[in-house]
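Please fill in the sequence for the structure shown.

STRUCTURE ENCODING:
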């Protein structure tokens, strides 16, 4: 890995912060005051962006985070967990007027049901972003585009700012809860260097029914598109160049954060200057290995662990 010596961070992450309450069990929630038992419960660091940040730091990248939390136990937990994993949090805004976001996840093997209270997740605003912190990085990653309600209109300006400082930019929109797949996303994509959707997100944003057509369409707008296909691995396209990578045969505990850890692997390969096939393989290896433990960050691999499968 080569670094721009004058810059203290490889990646600055801009995105949401929330805790995850993960419940594991073969049950389906039911109203009518029906009480059901689950096999396990864990309160862990949540948010797509934070899981990505931890995955990148776990691989040895120097990572800073920009986001917002409330002045409450969940917010302090999030910041503490980021710090423990080597992520710089000087860009995290603490707002005593809001509550930190919360997501409750019922995980059943490779599937999950998700309930989210937005709180601080949607509250970050463009004027609260420390431009000097952005300037200290080589790459900017933004996650959960459709949840960043107050920032979303200014995301194109943020990407322009990053480019003006010489950064490359990656975007993982994640799922759109209202399923409109709009909100200026195409304008943001036009300013991104790397797009990291899953299959559903890729096809919905492209407005096309299958992955090959959607991948071809969006690769005309974004220089590199890498799409996550779950148990089927991933595909990527850079111009006319195509790559595929199969998932690893691992024992899946849950898939929380697997896509975000995939993103971390891809960005590691991007910053290392690897070719498309190796970069995609790194993403798939990282994402696959992360599914072997509960929660988004417990199973994230080190660089040495990931390279074993390359």
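FILLED IN BY: designer on duty
SEQUENCE:
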């Amino acid at each position: 890995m080569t670094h721009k010596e004058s810059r203290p961070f490889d990646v600055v992450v801009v995105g949401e912060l929330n805790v995850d309450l993960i419940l594991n069990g073969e049950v389906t929630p039911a109203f009518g005051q029906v009480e059901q038992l689950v096999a396990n419960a864990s309160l862990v660091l949540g948010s797509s962006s934070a899981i990505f940040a931890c995955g990148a730091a776990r691989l040895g990248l120097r990572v800073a985070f920009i986001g917002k939390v409330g002045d409450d136990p969940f917010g302090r937990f999030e910041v503490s967990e980021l710090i423990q994993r080597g992520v710089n949090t000087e860009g995290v805004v603490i707002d005593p007027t809001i509550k930190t976001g919360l997501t409750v996840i019922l995980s059943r093997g490779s599937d999950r049901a998700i309930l989210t209270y937005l709180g601080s997740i949607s509250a970050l605003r463009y004027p609260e972003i420390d431009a000097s912190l952005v300037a200290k990085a080589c790459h900017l990653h933004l996650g959960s585009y459709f949840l960043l309600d107050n920032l979303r209109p200014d995301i194109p300006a943020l990407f322009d700012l990053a480019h003006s400082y010489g950064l490359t930019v990656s975007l993982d929109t994640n799922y759109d809860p209202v399923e409109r797949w709009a909100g200026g996303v195409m304008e943001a994509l036009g300013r991104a260097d790397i797009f990291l959707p899953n299959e559903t997100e890729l096809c919905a944003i492209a407005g096309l029914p299958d992955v090959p057509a959607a991948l071809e369409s969006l690769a005309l707008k974004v220089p590199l598109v890498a799409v996550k296909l779950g148990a089927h691995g991933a595909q990527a396209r850079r111009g006319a160049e195509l790559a595929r990578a199969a998932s690893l045969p691992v024992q899946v505990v849950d898939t929380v954060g697997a896509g975000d850890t995939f993103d971390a692997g891809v960005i590691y390969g991007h910053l290392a200057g690897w070719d498309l096939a190796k970069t995609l393989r790194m993403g798939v290896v990282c994402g696959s290995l992360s599914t072997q433990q509960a929660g988004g960050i417990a199973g994230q691999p080190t660089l040495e662990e990931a390279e074993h499968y390359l």
